[in-house]
Design goal:
By secondary structure, the protein is of the alpha/beta class. Helix content is 32%, strand content 26%. It folds into two domains: 1-57, 2,3-Dihydroxybiphenyl 1,2-Dioxygenase, domain 1, CATH 3.10.180; 59-145, 2,3-Dihydroxybiphenyl 1,2-Dioxygenase, domain 1, CATH 3.10.180.10. The chain has a four-stranded mixed sheet, with helices on one face. A four-stranded mixed sheet has the order 5-8-7-6. The longest helix has 12 residues, at 72-83. The radius of gyration is 17 Å and the shape is elongated.
Length: 145
């Protein structure tokens, strides 16, 4: 027997709506079970549980989901989809979706390459600290100055 570890997201009556929203954005995603209290689903094969737990607890930035993106097209897609319906932009690639869940939309490979270069890293950090959504072209240009 294996011990699975997966997140449980607490909602105030919006578990099914949230699961449907997330499954509509990420390919290879599906709802695997649905009761009035708990909705289980998979995002790209990762198990997640949504619980209709009531109004006691709200999401905050202490927990976020990171979406690795290969290019600007992917960044734009996930940024726009996750903000739809009332999300809020933050900075440095962070946003909150309409349910208040925090996401980081990150050009992972490009950012790792820039941050591993001691000459480019400070310039890259300075550039992305000014951004809300990552702009790869501006990030690379700034790091190469």
């Amino acid at each position: 027997m294996t011990n699975q570890i997966y997140p449980c997201l607490w909602f105030d009556g919006q578990a099914k709506a949230a699961a449907n929203f997330y499954c509509s954005i990420f390919k290879n995603s599906k709802i695997t079970s649905d009761t009035p209290m708990v909705v289980n689903f998979e995002l790209n094969g990762k198990k997640i549980m949504c619980l209709n737990g009531g109004p006691e607890f709200k999401f905050n930035e202490a927990v976020s989901f990171v979406v690795d993106c290969e290019n600007q097209e992917e960044i734009d897609y996930y940024w726009n989809k996750l903000l739809a319906g009332g999300g809020q932009e933050s900075q440095c690639g962070w946003l909150k979706d309409k349910f208040g869940l925090s996401w980081q939309i990150v050009p992972t490979a490009i950012l790792a390459k820039l941050l591993s270069d001691p000459q480019k890293a400070p310039k890259a950090v300075q550039a992305f600290m000014q951004m809300k959504k990552f702009d790869i072209e501006k990030l690379v240009t700034a790091a190469n100055k």
